[in-house]
Amino acid sequence: MRRKVLFFLLFFLLLGQNDVWANERIVTSSLELKDAIQLSQPGDTIILEEGTYEDAFVINKSIILRGKPGAIINGPTSGYPITIEAENVTIENLQIEGGGSQNAGIYIKTNHAQITNNIIKNVFHGVYIKDGYGNVIENNEITSVEGVENNKGFGVYLVDAPYTRISGNYFHHLQDGIYVSFSDYCAVSNNLIEHARYGIHTMDSKTVTIAKNEINNSHNGLMIMQSDELYITENYLHSNTTIDGAGMFIFDTFDSVIKANVVKENFKGIYFENAKRNIVEFNAFIQNDIGFDLAKDTTNNVISLNNFIKNTKQVISRPENMNLFTKDGYGNYWDDQRMINLDEDSFIDFPYKGGDIFFNMTADEPLLQIFFQSPAVYLWNQIEAFTPIPTKHFIVDEHPLIKAAPISLGNTDPAESNEENKKDHHSFQIFLLVFFVSGSGFILWKTRRGKDEV
Predict the structure, then answer these.
(1) Can you give the pTM of this predicted structure?
(2) In angstroms, rounded to a whole number, what is the distance separating the alpha carbons of residues 378 and 368?
(3) Domain residue ranges in the chain
(4) What's the pLDDT tens digit per position in 145-201?
(5) What is the mean pLDDT of residues 101-116?
(6) I need a surface site. Which of 41, 185, 205, 366 has the fewest CB within 10 A?
(7) Which residues, in sequence order, are CB contacts of 275 under 8 Å at separation 6+?
(8) Cβ of 191: how many Cβ atoms within 10 Å?
(9) Start-end of H helices in 21-63
């Protein structure tokens, strides 16, 4: 019996030998760091004391590289400061900078690396992953080359890197915060991205989750291209105001869900081109120049239960587009919609008609642009909304909501916006009703009088 017990103890000891015999090495110079990497065994931890470690370091064993405060890896003028060639490597608490003019601070060639709590700066790309899966980039600050505007790279650059998780990072002053290329099943969440060309950029990827990120002061918050089956939810995309920029730019994208996002104070809230069979629901379009731009070849999308509040233009659509603005009897909330609700249910009694006919007319007659935002155009749109004039509207919401949909709007309370807009439009609505009733009465009176005189 004693022999069996000793046998099992020896078996479990050998099973966990990597943890039992793992070493912790402390280094103070570049030479010591290179020697420690060479001598280390899988599971070992190398701790870098405060100081600058200048060279390019290749990690080919499953180890932990951990820095104490003030530990800096400074790469040479060519190559990568850190290259990871072994699985299950952890890099944490380091400042990493330098390297070649087209290289990354960290280059990952394999799987299951953990890059956490680092500052990566003055590099071209921050982290470059190619042909590796299951890597984690978490809680880092990443920026590109300092003082250079036209030669900046990406914060995280994925190429054939499925199942990557990128979470809790701060990206700023670079070309793209996160570029996901040919990389499926990735998760990008809880990142803050500022001053980029594109905050999050996907290309030829599918089943990517983009959730709870904040992106501002960039050209496009999200640049989604040739990607399918994405789930984009609870992002706050604001102050992306460059000409032709957008909170979301969605191109050649199909069968995706865009839900519970706030797009606020952008040039365009969301832009669709060749976007099909997507679901757009419970989003807030607030104070954008253009709330939602449905460009060419955008069809078969379902757009419902969204709030359109204080956009200069609520929605623009090409006349050939065919999209559904009502789902299961629920439309969207439009703050410029008249509030007539005689049966006191959850819906306004008249459909919302839009798509900006005037905007599309200016494409054929550019001289009409002199009337942009003029009282005449505003009055025309209001009259069309109140009356069944037989004009060609590019979108029709059959069941517009009487109140804003209950979704998170960041710093904007939908109830307050709803009440404020009711006040703003109430007096004008009364004027229009009085105008139409008086005008109709006058026309009827003149008609009857003419008949009587005959």
Answers:
(1) 0.82
(2) 14
(3) 18-321
(4) 987 777 899 999 999 999 999 999 999 999 999 999 999 999 999 999 999 999 999
(5) 97
(6) 366
(7) 250, 251, 252, 253, 254, 298, 301
(8) 29
(9) 30-39
